[in-house]
Fold these 3 entries.
Entry 1:
Amino acid sequence: MNKTMMDILACPIDKTHPLELFEIKGKGEVVSEGALFCTKCSRFYPIIEEIPIMLPDELRDKKQEMEFLKNNKEQLPEKIIVSANPWHL
């Protein structure tokens, strides 16, 4: 995901803008792995292979996102790991 997308991305649930960006892996302006976080509804959206996965809760892949959280629990903030919606560790 190019960091310039942060200017246009909003939470699909409550339309909050801007979202918080937590970069795990990246180079320059490109984030290859990380997470977006909505401060209003406390939802996180993973960035996997440069793609922000910003789907409504009923279309999200819980197995994939739980694996993402487990693999990145040391790099992501506590508010995502412990208390984010729709699920957390």
Entry 2:
Amino acid sequence: MPGSRKLGRTSDQRRAMLRAMVTFLLENGKIETTVSRAKEVQAMTEKMITLGKTPELHNKRQVLSYVTKESVAKKLFDEISPKYAERNGGYTKVIKIGPRRGDAAEMAIIQLV
């Protein structure tokens, strides 16, 4: 697991949250969240896209074990990864958008480049 941010959750809750967020990002191309979560999501999304670049059975199984929706995994191999075939990393970007109104947590938008 990349990074060492605990995000105020137990390890299983953290893993479930990151899986859901990575799936949502791959599905919609954009998420608004806190900066620390965005950085964790960024690391895992980059890994998934890199796996998707070579459509071997082992890579498909690794992606399916992490991404929570089969349709998103299919989209990753068919549409998203081929777009980045010539690119080595840097498939996502995190844009800071200032503090959240309720608790002043630093917010960010993470999106596919």
Entry 3:
Amino acid sequence: MYTTIQKWGNSQAVRLPKAILEMAKLKENDKVEIKVENGNLVIIPIKKHKTLEERIAEYKGDYTCSEWNTGKPRGKEVF
């Protein structure tokens, strides 16, 4: 796919087609890092940290806590 670098205020800009954004799973206002590697521009999505609410929403209830054996005491551990 081809596009053109265009003036945008005092900077230059490249428009990213919707199809490219969808393939990269990016959307408006997502943060990215832009690098130059071997003369090529590389756009890297910045992975956002999930909120507690997002993590809880993904929880399927399949975790069961259990005890584990850490071995015999080897010092002045308190019981």
